[in-house]
């Protein structure tokens, strides 16, 4: 049955459980009801008194009365009115009260043009305030490099606190003061600690919290070029809206996708974009360290490929089509190809894919028994956010990890060494933490658990009730896509070919085999056998610096592509802008007209990888075969192309089933006396995100994290590929006997999480 | 009576005509300067506030309202968080001198002054950059300073020091 109520005589459909305001907004009638404190994801509060409607009783005894739409449950045949004088008066007077102390600084306010308060003030017709007394002022707080506070503008709707404390469950932000001195911020100056602090910018209906990164290169929103994109910084694949102007990327905002990120975005997704504008980003092809023209570098590369002694290396950091393009080229040339840099990472990807359909974040938020394995917040913060939403609904959370993470403090924490983690996961089926649940969900950080742990997770899942779901997360946007077309043991075969001198040239796409990718230690030992390395990439990585040929590629907001997220959801993103010369001065520009004079700008941005690969195939006279193969693979993986505006397309289970028979490398045995390695990450850490100065300034110090009962100043770790000396950082949250280092450290040592390691401690002087 | 009124009206008309005898209303421009009305809409300029700082805060309302899209600017930020236009460019071969930018400007920075006759050899020369637009005066509004009225703090102006502002709130007080 269709439920409707009546607003000014018009039928408004609603779903039972909705309130009147929610239904009115959904029906596009928010022009008639102004509101502030209501937020679709944060719910109603009834604090601002703005969303007044007049309700007519059905009997003739009671006179009509004014009530708040956000607190009025929608019910059938409700008769409401807004187009009446007393409702208008209420709207206008309430907004005048809210505006009493609001400063007249819209021209210098970054919210101007996207301000809810501006919209509502214009909508209600308030233009001249009757109050002429002095206005209240506040001193601002320094909230770190990401969020800028201007407290004068506050209208005390409490959305920020409701988001930060209730939804994101952060503890370092709150409301202070009493009566009309209420202030929102931290107890003292300092960066906000929550990985979701950037959402304050979007949640705040006025300009109290604005984007500090955008502020440095500000442009009004009406001048921004915007389009649908997908976040490239982890496997969740949140939907984003990048905004660009004059050929440079200025900001990232959330794009609502209920299945994945809803109304929010983590700070990595929001503030990691300056990798696109980083000074170190390669923009011109480089040959032996010298900048060259496109043709020269392509000719040189084509002649190298014609020799037939080249290997191809794809990357989980690059999008699906580019990887497929590289795979198709390797296929045409009958050359060895690998999608990931080590067999361990390959097994990891295969085990992730072998898991049955993972729950979407929307489903995670509805779970009632959750087990989190590892530090989920630092790999995929939005997954951690979904767990917090489930906690708000009363879910029981169990965290298995080697350190007491923020999420662990919110649930039942079981301190475990990485090796014990696998055994614990294997026994989870009989564990009381999953018993009696209506919808149990297991979320793992894939790297901490390792391939054998993921295998154990899959076996556990088979013993659990049929509706139990599991998901594994990495901080690469396309590991799951990269793994699909990777044949078993392909990394090993590529490395073997290099060892046996069958190949002497490597063509890498977005990979960093000599820097921080898994197995980099092995690649470094193999590098002397290479006669040349060609890299197509968009960041200045370790490999880019030592590559013989460097070919720049367009960044993700500058091109179209496909990412496969942790659920196997193929999502498309479209080009948002073209990187162009920013003409700051017509005199500098010479003869050409600036845009203002009707002149055109010259695109400066590098082309996408597919363009380079296509040109290469053309020069090798393979274009037709290459295109045919590319189309075939693409059609095989996604028969229907996802729409950038749509929810994406889920990969069919039949393709996933192929990975259930993949071999699992045995985990290395560890004795209790040995030190064990675990991976340390922080929420803003990722290859591309590390290039973003503002976000990176919050990164914790590099070091070796151990329990404080180790009295040492520094330590040297010994691995099969090298040694690593790091300062010791005592960390009370760590489990004893575990050493946590970053991914670069693992790459240096040639080890993987959960491996035993030899340590020599250096005592404090 | 009626005849008398007709004659007087004729006489008044004749007098108006006769009054102009001996006067010349043609101005030999450009030899002679023009006496333009004060609201004349000539070439827009960027003015400074009474303290000598540039008034423009790069809010981009002028470029938004401009019907010919001839204004292009990029905001910059000074170390004291004061906004200013990093670049400000008007293409006078497109400008129609409508004055909407002046109306939209919340800081009275952009003002249409009296210059109206300027010719160039090339189109590109009509593109005026900020250096050519910014004048060393307050233009038509000698006293207005936006930052005295807005709530934001700046170097040399703390919170509560603006016009019609209370001293900053002590949020740690719980007195009624």
Notable characteristics:
A: 765 residues; alpha/beta; Rossmann fold; 6-stranded mixed sheet; 35 strands; 28% helix; globular; B: 176 residues; Alpha-Beta Plaits; 3-stranded antiparallel sheet; two-stranded antiparallel sheet; 5 helices
Main sheet specs of chain A: 7 strands, mixed
Distance between the termini of chain B: 83 Å
Report the major sheet of chain B. 3 strands, antiparallel
Q: How many whole angstroms does the radius of gyration of chain A measure? A: 28 Å
The DSSP helix count of chain B reads: 5
Structure description:
- The complex is a heterodimer of chains A (765) and B (176).
- Chain A has five domains: 4-98, Ubiquitin-like (UB roll); 135-275, no CATH class; 286-339 and 488-553 and 606-639, Rossmann fold, CATH 3.40.50.740; 349-480, 3-Layer(aba) Sandwich (Dimethylsulfoxide Reductase, domain 2), CATH 3.40.228.10; 675-762, Barwin-like endoglucanases (Beta Barrel).
- The longest helix of chain A has 18 residues, at 446-463.
- Chain A has 25 helices and 35 strands.
- In chain A, a hairpin with a 4-residue loop joins strand 27 and strand 28.
- Mean pLDDT of chain A is 90; it is low at 582-593.
- Chain A starts with a strand and ends with a strand.
- In chain A, helix 8 crosses helix 21 and helix 21 packs antiparallel against helix 22 (623-637).
- Chain A is of the alpha/beta class and 765 residues long.
- Chain A is globular.
- In chain A, the strands form eight sheets. Chain A has a seven-stranded mixed beta sheet with strand order 16-15-26-25-24-17-18, sandwiched between helices. In chain A, strands 31-33-32-35-30-34 form a six-stranded mixed beta sheet. A five-stranded mixed beta sheet of chain A has the order 2-1-5-3-4, covered by helices on one side.
- Chain B has 176 residues and is of the alpha+beta class.
- Chain B has a domain at 50-150: Alpha-Beta Plaits, CATH 3.30.70.
- Chain B has five helices and six strands.
- In chain B, the strands form two sheets. In chain B, strands 2-3-5 form a three-stranded antiparallel beta sheet. Chain B has a two-stranded antiparallel ribbon with strand order 1-4.
- The termini of chain B are far apart.
- At the A-B interface, strand 6 of A face helix 2, strand 2, strand 3 and strand 6 of B.
């Amino acid at each position: 049955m269709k439920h409707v109520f009546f607003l000014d005589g018009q039928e408004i459909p609603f779903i039972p459980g909705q309130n009147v305001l929610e239904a009115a907004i959904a029906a596009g009638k928010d022009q008639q009801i102004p509101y502030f404190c209501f937020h679709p994801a944060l719910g109603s509060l009834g604090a601002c008194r703005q969303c007044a409607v007049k309700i007519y009783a059905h009997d003739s005894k009671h006179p009509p009365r004014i009530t708040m739409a956000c607190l009025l449950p929608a019910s059938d045949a409700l008769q409401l009115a807004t187009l009446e004088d007393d409702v208008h008066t209420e709207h206008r007077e309430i907004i005048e009260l809210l505006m009493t102390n609001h400063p007249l600084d819209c021209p210098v306010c970054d919210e101007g043009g996207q301000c809810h308060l501006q919209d509502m003030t214009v909508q209600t017709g308030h233009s001249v305030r009757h109050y002429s007394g002095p206005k209240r002022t506040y001193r601002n707080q320094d909230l770190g490099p990401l969020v800028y506070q201007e407290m004068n503008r506050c209208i005390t709707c409490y959305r920020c606190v409701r988001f930060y404390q209730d939804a994101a469950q952060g503890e370092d932000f709150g409301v202070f003061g009493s009566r009309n001195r209420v202030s929102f911020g931290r107890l003292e100056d300092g960066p906000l600690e929550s990985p979701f602090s950037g959402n304050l910018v979007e949640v705040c209906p006025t300009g109290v919290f604005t984007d500090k990164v955008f502020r440095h290169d500000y442009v009004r929103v009406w001048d921004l070029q915007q389009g649908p994109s997908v976040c490239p910084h982890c496997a969740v694949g949140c939907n984003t809206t990048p905004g660009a102007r004059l050929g440079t990327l200025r900001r990232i905002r959330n794009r609502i996708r209920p299945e994945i990120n809803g109304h929010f975005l983590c700070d990595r997704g929001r503030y990691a974009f300056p990798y696109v504008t980083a000074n170190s980003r390669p923009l011109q092809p480089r040959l032996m360290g010298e900048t060259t023209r496109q043709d020269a570098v392509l000719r040189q590369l084509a002649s190298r490929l014609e020799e037939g002694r080249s290997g191809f290396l794809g990357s989980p950091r690059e999008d699906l089509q580019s990887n497929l393009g590289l795979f198709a080229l390797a296929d045409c040339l009958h050359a060895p190809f690998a999608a990931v840099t080590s067999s361990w990472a390959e097994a990891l990807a295969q085990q992730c894919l072998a898991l049955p359909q993972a729950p979407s974040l929307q489903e995670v938020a509805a779970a009632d028994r959750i087990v989190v394995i590892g530090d989920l917040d630092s790999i995929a913060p939005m997954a951690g956010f979904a767990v917090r939403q489930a906690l708000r609904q009363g879910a029981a959370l169990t965290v298995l990890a080697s350190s007491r993470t923020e999420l662990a403090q919110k649930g039942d924490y079981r301190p475990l060494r990485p090796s014990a983690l696998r055994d614990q996961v294997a026994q989870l089926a009989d564990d009381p933490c999953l018993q009696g649940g209506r919808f149990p969900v297991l979320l793992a950080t894939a790297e901490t658990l390792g391939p054998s742990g993921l295998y154990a997770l899959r076996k556990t899942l088979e013993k659990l009730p049929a509706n139990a779901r599991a998901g594994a997360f990495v901080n690469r946007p396309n590991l799951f896509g990269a793994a699909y077309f990777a044949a078993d043991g392909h990394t090993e075969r590529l490395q073997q070919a290099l060892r046996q001198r069958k190949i002497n040239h490597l063509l890498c796409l977005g990979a960093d085999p000599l820097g921080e990718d898994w197995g980099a230690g092995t690649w470094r030992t193999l590098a002397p056998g290479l006669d040349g390395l060609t890299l197509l990439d968009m960041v200045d990585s370790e490999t880019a610096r030592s590559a013989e040929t460097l070919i720049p590629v367009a960044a993700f907001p500058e091109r179209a592509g496909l990412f496969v997220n942790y659920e196997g959801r193929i999502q498309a993103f479209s080009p948002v802008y073209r990187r162009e010369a920013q003409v700051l001065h017509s005199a500098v520009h010479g003869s050409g007209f600036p845009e203002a004079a009707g002149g055109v700008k010259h695109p400066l941005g590098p082309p996408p990888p597919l363009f380079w690969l296509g040109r290469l195939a053309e020069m090798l006279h393979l274009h037709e075969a290459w295109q045919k193969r590319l189309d075939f693979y693409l059609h095989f993986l996604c028969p229907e192309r996802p729409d950038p505006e749509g929810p994406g397309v889920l990969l069919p289970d039949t393709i996933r089933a192929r990975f259930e028979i993949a071999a699992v490398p045995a985990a290395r045995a560890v004795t209790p006396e040995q030190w064990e390695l675990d991976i340390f990450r922080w929420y803003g850490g990722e290859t591309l995100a590390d290039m973003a100065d503002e976000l990176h300034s919050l990164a914790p110090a590099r070091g070796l994290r151990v329990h404080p009962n180790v009295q040492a100043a520094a330590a040297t770790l010994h691995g099969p590929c090298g040694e690593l000396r790091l300062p010791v950082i005592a960390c009370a949250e760590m489990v004893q006997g575990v050493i946590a280092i970053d991914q670069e450290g693992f790459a240096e040592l040639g080890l993987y999480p959960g491996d035993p390691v030899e340590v020599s401690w250096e005592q404090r002087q | 009576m009626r005849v008398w009124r007709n004659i007087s009206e004729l006489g008044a008309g004749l007098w108006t005509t006769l009054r102009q005898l001996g006067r010349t209303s043609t101005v030999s421009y450009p030899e002679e300067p023009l006496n333009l009305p004060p609201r004349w809409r000539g070439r827009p300029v960027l003015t400074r506030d009474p303290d000598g700082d540039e008034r423009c805060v790069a809010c981009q309302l002028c470029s938004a309202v401009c019907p010919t899209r001839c204004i292009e600017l990029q905001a910059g930020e000074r170390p004291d968080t004061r906004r200013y236009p990093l670049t400000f460019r008007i293409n006078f071969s497109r400008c129609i001198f409508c004055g909407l930018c002046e109306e939209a400007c919340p800081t009275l920075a952009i003002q249409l002054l009296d210059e109206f006759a300027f010719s160039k050899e090339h189109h590109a020369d009509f593109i005026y950059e900020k250096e050519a637009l910014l004048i060393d005066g307050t233009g038509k509004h000698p006293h207005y300073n936006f930052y005295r009225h807005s709530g934001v703090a700046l170097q040399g102006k703390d919170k509560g020091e603006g016009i019609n502002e209370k001293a900053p709130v002590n949020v740690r007080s719980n007195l009624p």
